[in-house]
Amino acid sequence: xxxxxxxxxxxxxxxxxxxxxxxxxxxxxxxxxxxxxxxxxxxxxxxxxxxxxxxxxxxxxxxxxxxxxxxxxxxxxxxxxxxxxxxxxxxxxxxxxxxxxxxxxxxxxxxxxxxxxxxxxxxxxxxxxxxxxxxxxxxxxxxxxxxxxxxxxxxxxxxxxxxxxxxxxxxxxxxxxxxxxxxxxxxxxxxxxxxxxxxxxxxxxxxxxxxxxxxxxxxxxxxxxxxxxxxxxxxxxxxxxxxxxxxxxxxxxxx
Length: 255
Hints:
Blueprint: E1 9-17, H1 34-42, E2 53-54, E3 63-73, H2 79-89, E4 94-102, E5 114-122, E6 134-135, H3 142-149, E7 154-157, E8 172-183, E9 186-193, H4 200-212, H5 221-227, E10 242-248
Parallel strand pairs: 3-10, 5-6
Antiparallel strand pairs: 1-3, 1-4, 2-3, 5-9, 5-10, 7-8, 8-9
Helix pairs in contact: 1-2
């Protein structure tokens, strides 16, 4: 191992996790987090415990099938060896799907050009899959929901759909896709965009449902967007229905 800090290898991870029993992605003292578990699993493989950086921060209870992260280490390890060792060390609610040797300047967060999320609503109570969907017996109108979803496409300030964070520099984002679709008895909301603010997707989902059910004074999302105040948003959909599905490093829609 070299003592030269400029002599390192960078690795890229593709990660899947069930967020049910995690307090989100980001490392927290005395809390079980995805980042913490992966760093703990990496520790025996390297002389210095690596610190991983994710493409974003998922909230407590949110899942992922396509989270991307990177870490660097002084030792040069085979990617397949790391993959097998990591999965052997990790708990069953986290799986590393792929390990790649990355360019030295690669950054999982800053180089990402878009992220994709799916929110799942289930109209029937089922034993299997209940931890990945929000059960709502209400009859929902797909056309009305898609009309509302189309209003978030493009560049907007999403201050009305975000909880304030001290490190948030601004509340703008560009949304490439926002669509509702039916899958068997489920409704899926798919949204792809440059960035997503804290609670943004869940607030958008809950607000769209509130508007279609007539429980808000507003008739469209644009009116709420213009308020730039989260107090005008509707219900915040529960975390367990939301999954981060993709992080893209090329122009949308390419992965």
